[in-house]
């Protein structure tokens, strides 16, 4: 089965008190994500944290209306285009020394910010 974010997580639009909302599901079982992801996660807790965090970020991007892209730099990159998926997570993991570093490393690319700006006018 080709790797795609559908294996990692899912966003479902919902209505809460008449307002648009989202349910975000993240698969915490790295063993189900293929041998490369599973092995690196067993050896490196920060790699697992990176997978979980970036998956949350991707799914929350969907909740905010962001579309998939073909740019490997983007959090909204669609894994169906292929590429080095462990490397996708690894490049973020390499920015971390401890788990708390996640709070200071957004994981968003310039392309992701451009999509957010187009939708919401954010700077
Ligand atoms: Zn997606």
Q: Structural class of the helix and strand makeup?
A: alpha+beta
Report the bound ligands by name, code or SMILES. zinc ion
Relative strand content? 5-15%
Q: Number of helical segments? A: 5
According to DSSP, the number of beta strands is 2
Q: How is this structure best described in words?
A:
The chain is 42% helix and 13% strand. With 123 residues, the chain is of the alpha+beta class. The protein has one domain (5-120). The chain has a two-stranded antiparallel ribbon with strand order 1-2. The longest helix has 19 residues, at 45-63. The chain is globular. The model has no long low-confidence stretch (mean pLDDT 91). It binds zinc ion. The site of zinc ion has 4 residues, from helix 3.
Note the main attributes of this structure.
single chain, 123 residues, binds zinc ion
Task: Characterize this entry briefly.
With 123 residues, the chain is α+β, with helices and mostly antiparallel strands.
């Amino acid at each position: 089965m080709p790797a795609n974010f559908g294996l990692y997580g899912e966003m479902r639009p919902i209505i809460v008190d008449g307002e648009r909302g989202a349910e975000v599901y993240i698969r915490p079982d790295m063993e189900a994500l293929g041998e490369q992801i599973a092995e690196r996660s067993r050896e490196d807790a920060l790699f697992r944290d990176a997978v979980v965090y970036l998956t949350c970020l991707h799914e929350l991007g969907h909740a905010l209306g962001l579309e998939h892209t073909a740019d490997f730099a983007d959090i909204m990159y669609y894994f169906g285009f292929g590429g080095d998926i462990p490397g996708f997570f690894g490049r973020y993991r390499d920015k971390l020394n401890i788990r708390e570093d996640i709070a200071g490393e957004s994981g968003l690319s310039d392309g992701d910010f451009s999509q957010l700006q187009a939708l919401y006018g954010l700077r």
